[in-house]
Amino acid sequence: MEKQITSLTIAAICRLVLPMTLLISQAAGAAGAVDPLPGIWEQFDDKTGKLQALVRIVQTPAGEYEGFIDQLFVEEDEDPNPRCELCSDERKNQPVVGMRIIEGLKREAPTVFSSGRILDPDSGDSYRLNITVINAGNRLEVRGFIGISLFGRTQIWRKHAGPATHF
What we know:
Layout lengths: L1 H31 L6 E6 L6 E9 L5 E8 L27 E10 L2 E9 L4 E10 L4 E7 L6 E8 L8
Antiparallel strand pairs: 1-2, 1-8, 2-3, 3-4, 4-5, 5-6, 6-7, 7-8
């Protein structure tokens, strides 16, 4: 009888303790998880595939994400300090380096961010924005679009491995 009670008690404890241990470890993992979006990202030219800019993405105190151009990589015959001549808002004629090009981005899931806006400083156009973190946090699928996501384009940005830059 004593052996039977011991077996039942151990089984009952296992049924209670094991799920609690899993919940605690998941909560601790989530609390200690590193946010994959903030950092320096390399943006490439769609036509040439050349590195075009370093974009620094940060989280605001309100929990949204913003992105700023930290550095441009221009050809010798291009202006090394371009301005957003075609912008129609407060960024008109402002230097592109240091400019906020991503705003209002919100986390929807651990690796999915949406409801943002992204500015193309070359055209002055602003697009709706969704970003998905892929490749173990080393790449971003950056989707800019008008209206619905079907009408847009996706770029792959790469996590910058070099030293941090700051305008």
